[in-house]
What we know:
- This protein is an alpha+beta fold.
- The chain folds into two domains: 2-27 and 35-93, N-terminal domain of TfIIb; 115-184, no CATH class.
- The chain has helices at 2-14, 16-28, 83-86, 90-93, 116-134, 161-174; strands at residues 36-41, 50-57, 63-70, 102-103, 112-113, 135-138, 144-155, 176-181.
- The strands form three sheets. A three-stranded antiparallel sheet has the order 1-2-3, with no helix packed on it.
- Strand 4 (102-103) and strand 5 form a beta hairpin.
- The radius of gyration is 28 Å and the shape is elongated.
- Residues 1-11 have low confidence and may be disordered.
Amino acid sequence: MGVAGAGAIAASGLGFDVAVAESTKVKQQLRIEGAAEAHSICPYCAVGCALIAYVRPRPGGAIELLQIEGDPDSPVNEGRLCPKGATAMQLAVSPRRVESPLYRAPGATSWQKISWDDMLDRIAKNIKASRDATFVAVDANGNTVNRTEGIAFAGGAAFSSEEGYVATKVMRGLGLVHLEQQARV
Ligand code: SF4
């Protein structure tokens, strides 16, 4: 008992007992303790890394998102995520998330919120104006080409095959020849 007592006093003197008590407290307060696992896929790019979202039901039926991390069982990412995927939780919880279209007028220094209808109308008008101004019906050699040289289109890497198909059809219909994909640039 004498030895044990001396040891306890020595450990206390070095702060070990405090460290153990603190780590025990952290373990008891584990943020995802008792949470359910929901499996998902990172939405940012076509690599398709698997995610685990830790969620907990709240009184009233709402679901609280506690943590998102890479799924170690996925053969694609084996638990790892790139910096973008590692912040996937911010898509759901960040107070800085942009939730409506923003417009900055030429020369303006600040952005203003506009509605989705206003934004789509603006894009449609600009596409028509650019197409009308740059459309080439016949090239320098007299060949009929019917192309739009003043607009380029870049798809996102999160495009599904179907979205890519539709986007390509629409853009080719407008006469675009400059089509790219974010995963290639
Ligand atoms: S953005 Fe990063 S984490 Fe997400 S699927 Fe692509 S490589 Fe994976």
